[in-house]
Amino acid sequence: MKQFKGRVITPGEVSAEALVTREGFNTLASFQTALQFGDKEVKCSDQNNSDIFGKSMLGKALCLPQTIGSTTGGLVLYCACAMGKNPACMLFSNPIDSLAAAGAVLSDVWVDGVSMPVVDSLGDEFLNYVKDGMKITVKADGIVEVE
Fold first, then answer.
1. How does pLDDT run across 52-69, given as a tens digit for each residue?
2. Which of 2, 63, 77, 141 has its CA 20 to 30 A from that of 36?
3. What distance in Å separates the CA atoms of residue 55 and residue 6, rounded to the nearest whole number?
């Protein structure tokens, strides 16, 4: 097991299976099929993200460097949480951008019964170490354990 320390954006504790992309995560493109067309498995629909395209994001520890793309990113994260189609947590190796942070914070404040802890600034070593399927445990203080 290896531990990484990051900055807590939205609080919470969770354990989940890792889903890893080393590419920028286009929030709108990734959630589009799930949010607009009812994909219950919440498969990543961003064909430009070869790491996770077609893989289910639902309930996973989404490990990524940063988000990219549309200015609707925050709203998309909020909608995913409101519809129960969110990852278990989002773990950023880089500092989070303002749009993703806004979506995470709005979800944390306004969506009852849904928790999606978000931790950023985990570093390049985190993203180089973690692999799909590894068990991730997020602690309330921003410690992320990878097994």
1. 999 999 999 999 999 998
2. 63
3. 26
